[in-house]
Amino acid sequence: MQILVAVASVFLTQGPGVASSKLTPAGRACAEARYSPDRGTKEAAPLCRKACDAGDAYGCMLWGVLLQDGDGIAQDLPAAARSFLSACDKGLADGCSLYAAALSNGVGLAKDKKKAAVFLQRACDAGSGSGCYALATLHVAGEGVKRDDAAAARLLRRGCDLGDTFGCFYLGRALVRGDGVPVDKKQGMELMVKACAKENPPPQCADENFAR
């Protein structure tokens, strides 16, 4: 299993979707501008900053993404990390995941795998499937936490239950191999095949021997 380099939630990759019902008016304006094909990030940037300043968690998360990418505005990695932390502290699981990714990779702040694991646990507990998956990768590698295949398998199962494609794929592979769970090759293969049929599947799906 590869260590997750960056955590990207369904909200970030596919737009606000169902989550838009939780947005404040300022946050909704930010999200709609961010994901509109006709408006662009230059228009979204001031709206997202305004939403974050007004206390909207999604606004802070998207403002952080814009700052991190330097998309339509000057790149500012430390400010991006602070914005992700603000989103996390406001109760947004994906904000915790993105802050953990910044910590894990030393993007905008000092690298700290142990602290990253703490924030990934917060994300997972708050319902972020990608956060559960990312924490599982740390347990597999023994980075920031002790190596524990059984704990990793439990986290992968929770991530999969929350709809994370990578969590489902790697849970399937753990079941095929017996990594931290009893071997169940049938269920494992079913999980991997279903994950590989999803949009944006794990890159291992391109390998016909992906179960290895």
UniProtKB/TrEMBL annotation:
<dbReference type="InterPro" id="IPR011990">
    <property type="entry name" value="TPR-like_helical_dom_sf"/>
</dbReference>
<dbReference type="InterPro" id="IPR006597">
    <property type="entry name" value="Sel1-like"/>
</dbReference>
<comment type="similarity">
    <text>Belongs to the hcp beta-lactamase family.</text>
</comment>
<protein>
    <recommendedName>
        <fullName>Beta-lactamase</fullName>
    </recommendedName>
</protein>
<dbReference type="Pfam" id="PF08238">
    <property type="entry name" value="Sel1"/>
</dbReference>
<dbReference type="InterPro" id="IPR040239">
    <property type="entry name" value="HcpB-like"/>
</dbReference>
<keyword id="KW-0677">Repeat</keyword>
